[in-house]
Amino acid sequence: MSVYLGIDLGGTKIAAAAVDVRTGERLLQLIVPTEAHEGPAAVIERMAALAAQVCTQANVALEHIPAIGIGVPGVIDLERGVTLLLPNLPSGWRNVPLAANIAHLTGRPTAIINDARAFTLAEATFGAGRDASSVVGITLGTGIGGGIAFNGRLHLGIDGTAGEVGHMTIDPYGPRCGCGNRGCLETFASGPSITAMGLRAVAQGMTTQIGALVDYDLNKITPGVIARAAENGDTVAREILQRAGSYLGIGIANLITIFSPERVVIGGGLSRLGEWLLEPARTEVTARCHLTPLDRVQIMLAQLGGEAGVIGAAVWAAQRYPAWSMDVR
Questions:
Q1: Distance between CA atoms of residues 100 and 108, nearest Å
Q2: Measured in whole angstroms, how far is the alpha carbon of residue 196 from the centre of its chain?
């Protein structure tokens, strides 16, 4: 059977879908609140109930689903299916046997994967990288994640940790990152870092519309507000986005130099800023990459939107638990 279940576990919501992994089509998708404050056990029960509900409404028997894949926002033990640290969920979900618990509740084999890796797998298979043999995925949001795929298969490295692109060093003397390093890409081009630049501009009394757009309620400053100011011709806002995009470009240049991918696919919430980030990023790549034929490398936005998580999780389950002889690219 080619229909697998993909689940995307987030800090505020859980999405689950029945996915035809031969085409990437979602037969049915449902979303419920995570209610993460209730703790891992309650959330896991909610995930299992959602999986059953998707099957019922999609008119697919749960026992006929070959496997379930789950994308999770954090560090995992890939082989044991255990979450080691999910920083955006209360308690951090340390050492929670997520795969085993879901398998017990649903009766289906279950595999977990980092959510940015799931995004990359989905885009490499059915999205912006679907006809490319090598894809680097980057997710821009509260943090920066990513993944690497060759011929539709993830390069996972040791324990599935390959692809943590947000934690490459951009400046060895830069700000301290939550991972413990200094000067990570995430400290320069993530949502909070862009917001912090906007806050500093307003606090330092620079001539900018950023504060006025939120009636000087600094808690309401976001990258989206900064982009609105930039669209209005605000020089300070444009410089902020230019700076973030340039740092992103340095990171992309490093990845291109190492992996020489055909596609670099950008997704996540911040990707909505589009060319405000991509234009300076491409400029930086051109200035820094001299050994890779850049005319054969495309830097582009993701195509699957918020559905990439469930699609990638389902494809991951199909690759871990293939149910038929056809290869799942």
A1: 10
A2: 21
